[in-house]
Amino acid sequence: MYNSLLPVSSRHALFFCLFLSTFELLTYVASDVVMPGMLTIIKDLNAQTYYVPWSLNAYLLGGVSFQWLIGPASDRFGRRPLLLIGCALFSVFCLATPWVDNIQVFTLLRFIQGIGLGFVVVVSYPALQEAFNESDAIRLIALFANIALLSPLFGPLVGSVVLSYLSWRTLFIAIALMAALAWFGLLRWMPETIGVVRQDGSKIECQPLEVKTLARAYGDLLTNPRCLFGSVALGLIGLPLMAWIALSPLLLVHHLKMSMLEYALWQLPIFGALIAGNIVLNFTAEKFKPEQLLYFSLFPVFIGITLALVMTLIWQNIITLIIGMAIYAFGLGICNATLYRLTLFSSEHGKGSVSAMIGMISVAIFSLGGALMAGLGAGNNLVAYITAATIPMLAALFIIVNIFTRQKRSKTKITASGH
């Protein structure tokens, strides 16, 4: 059972987590369930196939564009009102999408919907970190990741089935209505974490929202190596998976001529392994330090991508690629929440600002990196994809090992000088 640091009952905290996870799940459903229908959407809107990955890229760009303001605003005005605004924005523009008649307006609405994802990244995660102690917060982030990952795990499969009975326009209406339900749940059950005296006697004060203060805060964060490089590493290490979500319709359906059902079934091993990694993290978070969990996770990440690259180069077969990607995804399930926690608490600045910095950098890498990979032909064949995906993953491993090894050496020197 998770016990909140806030003066609310366990039942209240449970319903808060339930509706928060519902909103988070919907922000991922809006990409993963929709992706199987992108080939139909571009056909209905008389667009070219290169717009397929741009649906996800525009969505991610929306998620990153206003995080610089959303995070500090939540430090000033509180997590609760900002998250309610984000949920309402997401619901309204999902409801507007069914009425579009050209791909440009569709892509613009996807961008605006993505802003809702930005609220999830920079408001909901800090709210969880502030509402629970360290071990519970890490376990909850992992649990939330499991819930959210049900979308990429079952999203393509559900999307393929649903879109065989409903139009993509009806699907967006359904997402909008469920987001409205999540909004009412958050309105009733979400507690405020800013300016509230917690049960341990601590209180997180409101932070001023001024241009000079923002500039100084982001300047400090950009010169904080652990925060900056931790954010970059989060983006780079997750880029192979995000690029897979964006490009797999092209790789599997358009080029390998798979059916939508086959396309959906090939997602299961990868995202099933990702959930397995999060489950392992949930059971080990209290037994090991975050740094130890992070180092452990790097082994399956490296081994998985390396195996995928080598085996795909030799056999050029979808099975070999999926095996390696599944191993990588298992490691990523452990790595992601752990690295996020370590990066979030690498600075004394307001967690809204720090979370915004993490979100802006990592999601920008997802979006721009995914667009670059698509532009360089990663969606043309399996070899091109895994070759392109290996580069950011290796860069992320180098950054993580370098930053945290340097920190460990610094602690050792401080301890030695103390003696």
Tell me about this structure:
The chain has 419 residues and is an all-alpha fold. The protein contains 16 helices and no strands. It has helices spanning 10-32, 38-44, 52-65, 67-77, 79-96, 103-131, 134-162, 168-189, 211-222, 225-255, 260-265, 268-284, 290-315, 318-344, 351-375, 382-418. Helix 6 (103-131) runs antiparallel to helix 15 (351-375) and helix 10 packs antiparallel against helix 16. The two termini are 41 Å apart. Residues 412-416 have low confidence and may be disordered.
Outline of the structure:
With 419 residues, the chain is mainly alpha-helical.
The percent range for strand residues is under 5%
User: What is the average of the pLDDT values?
Assistant: 87
Number of helical runs? 16
**Envelope shape:** globular
> What low-confidence regions span 5 or more consecutive residues with pLDDT below 50?
412-416
In N-to-C order, the SSE pattern is HHHHHHHHHHHHHHHH
Q: Topology of this protein?
A:
Elements: H1 10-32, H2 38-44, H3 52-65, H4 67-77, H5 79-96, H6 103-131, H7 134-162, H8 168-189, H9 211-222, H10 225-255, H11 260-265, H12 268-284, H13 290-315, H14 318-344, H15 351-375, H16 382-418
